[in-house]
Every structure is written in structure tokens, then in C-alpha cells.
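User: Last request for today: this protein with pyridoxal-5'-phosphate, please.
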Amino acid sequence: MKPVLKSHKLANVCYDIRGPVLQEAKRMEDEGHKIIKLNIGNLGAFGFDSPEEIQLDMIRNLPNAAGYSDSKGIFAARKAVMHYTQQKQIKGVTLEDIYIGNGVSELIVMSMNALLNAGDEVLVPAPDYPLWTAAVSLSGGTPRHYLCDESNGWLPDIDDIRAKITPNTRAIVVINPNNPTGAVYPDDLLREIVAVAREFGLIIYADEVYDKVLYDGVQHTALASLSEDVLTISFNGLSKNYRSCGYRAGWMVVSGDKRSARDYIEGLDMLASMRLCANVPGQYGIQTALGGYQSINDLVMPGGRLYRQREVAHDLITSIPGVSCVKPKATLYMFPRLDPKIYPIADDQLFIKELLQQERVLLVQGTGFNWPQPDHFRLVFLPYEDDLREAIARIARFLENYRKR
Ligand code: PLP
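Assistant: Here's the final one, the structure of the complex with pyridoxal-5'-phosphate:
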């Protein structure tokens, strides 16, 4: 038989969070090594349980959840999401504007597939959550990365956004709160982004999946709440705010100028029906989650487990010579910088692989988030404090040896 090759569509598609270094980690685990994993924001794997009331309601509804649901999702879930959009001050959202998906991931790919033709460009942040870049490429479009400025708390650089717009630009992706930097964007900046989108007729894709994982009293504003005219697709779900990654329950909401987007919405509807429906048991968790006790607040307040782990991780990582890091105001991540004068890294994937092999700590390299230079990595601060301390001590030891090379 001739070799079976993958599709050309995958030529520029990359998702390094679960890439080759993870394969190496799996191989090492098979050999019996114990690895401390600071690579994936999978809360359940670190003892962050999903709220019991969500679990109970899903179990209770399991007998009703064996059939397909409406393609856009069950009524109760969409109604709850509609109320949530009202809480977030997003205007004019009806049940028909809400799509429930198998996590936000499925909806990201769907939203890009429904939009893009060859040659279309989408503005995506650098660094980004790399599914966005991958989804644009897979859908036949071209990602154009705009810079988030580390020296300005990782806020998007509006001048760079403007500079990257061409007649082919269709949309801008905004990830706020941001993975991997942990930045939360102020309203003034969000208004500027809306103004740019309005000026150039761009659709806004607002990924707000961490909008409750906020520290230090920071408030989050939904981008869609800042305009009633710019077509905005907002994404959110149970994975992070409700520590329920595995239930695969996310949603997307269309708001703004829906009349001019009738054809695009028809495309979204078609793709939603082609996959029949999202995982139905997971959908039964949505109403309970949004209307229930918001236990995430106990984790992010001073003294809460996530808050403490952020403090420890940031203090320890920034005490290593040549390592600096903007302190995250949200999410489960930080994106430290390795001073290139002290750590002249040519290939950061190799660097991360060596760290894994020598110290049995797994991180993801910065270029995996479409950061252009090999001088950053992402650290997930989900492991218990003792494991975090141990992991960062090992990173420090690895870097000390690296400096002596
Ligand atoms: N968007 C961002 C910014 C993420 O970090 C993630 C997961 O890590 C997702 C989307 C995907 O979330 P879901 O589990 O809902 O598919």
C-alpha cells in the first residue's frame, strides 16, 4: 500500500500544548519516571473538583440525556447562558443566538470553518492560545499575529493591530483574560479594539473562558457589552470557571449586527447540525453551574488555593537569575521570560525537552503559543504548593546548569 499522507489542510496547523514534548513525557512515564506536569490547564487532574451540585444534576438528568438534543443545545442551558449574557451587559441576545458545543474548542473551529475562504486573514494575538491560530489555518485562512506588549502588562498593541490590517482581514480574535499571559484588559483598550473593528468592518471573536478566574479584585468586562453594532462572537464554558474540562460543555453567543451576518449564521447553523449536538449530559450541568454557588471565588480570593499557588509560583520563578514575569491577574498560567543574554536559547522546544529529560518537569515552550522568539515558556500553577515548589526548584537547577554551559 502507498504511504498514507495527512491532508494538505494540516500543513500549517500546529498545537504544541499536546505536541512532541508531551509524547516524550508519555514515553518517560511508561518507563516509570514520575513527571511534574506544569503544561496543561486541566484542573481535575490537580484535585480541583467540579462543584458537587453540577455533578449531582448531571447524574440526576442522565436518564434524559441519552438522546440527541437540539443542535444548538438544550433549552435550559441556552436560557441560562442568555441570563448570563444579561448579567454581563451584552444586549439583544436571544436563545437563537446561543450555540452549545463540546467545549469552546469545537465552537472555535466551527466559527472559523463557517467564515473563512482562502486568502482571508484573521488577526490573532501573539502569544495566543494556539487553537485559534490552528483553527484559522485549518479553515483555509491566514493567521496574522498582533503583538501583546510584555512591557505594558501584556496588553494588545493597538498600533500593531492597525498595522497588520489588510483588505483581506475579516476578523480579530481577543483572548481576555488571556492564556498564556494572565492579562486582563482594561475597558479603554477594549473600546479601542471595538473602534478598530468598527472602522475596518471586522468581526470580533472574544474568547472569555477565564472570565471568573480573576485575582486581586480585578473586574472583567465582556467585549460584546461595549457595542451593539459590531458583530461579536463570545466564547465561554464550564471548563475553567467551573473546573469541569472533561464534561466538554461550552457555548458561543452571537451579538451585534446580526442582520448583516445572516449568511454566516446560516453557515454556523449548518455546521452545528452536521455534528448533531453537543454532549448532552454536559449540557445539563450548565444551568446549575451558572445559577449555582460560584465556588471559584473561594479559590481566587486571598488565601484561596489558586491565589496562593499563583503567589508561590510567581515569587519563586522570578527569584531565578535572568527570569522575569508579568504577574498574572487572571487564569491558571504565567508566561515568564528568559533573558536571552543569560540564556541564549536557539530552539525553545529542545530547551523544554532537555528540561523534561534532566529534571522531569514538563512545561510548554513560548513558540508553542506563537510567540516569535524562543525566550519564553508557559507555566501552569495548578499543582499543589509542594509540587510547585519542587518543580520550580528543579527548573532553577536546570537553569543554573544552563548558565554554566
Ligand atoms: N480558550 C482558551 C483561551 C483556553 O485556554 C482553552 C483551554 O485551555 C479553551 C479555549 C478550550 O476550552 P474548552 O475546554 O471549553 O474546549
